[in-house]
Amino acid sequence: MRVAFLKSSAAGLAAWLGVFALAPTAQAANPLEMNFWLSGPRYDGNLPACEAGLPSITHQFAEKEGTYWNSALRITGYARIQEVAFRPWQSDNIPRRYCTGDALLNDGKVHRLHYSIIEDGGLAGFADGIEFCIVGLDRNWAFNPACKAARP
Question: What residue range is the signal peptide (predicted)?
Answer without folding.
Answer: 1-28
